[in-house]
Amino acid sequence: MDLTLMPKIKELYNNGGNIIAFLKSQDDRKVNNIEDIIISYDFQSGSYIKFVEENGLHINKDKMRFGRIKGMLQGV
Question: Is the overall model pTM greater than 0.85, yes or no?
Answer without folding.
Answer: no
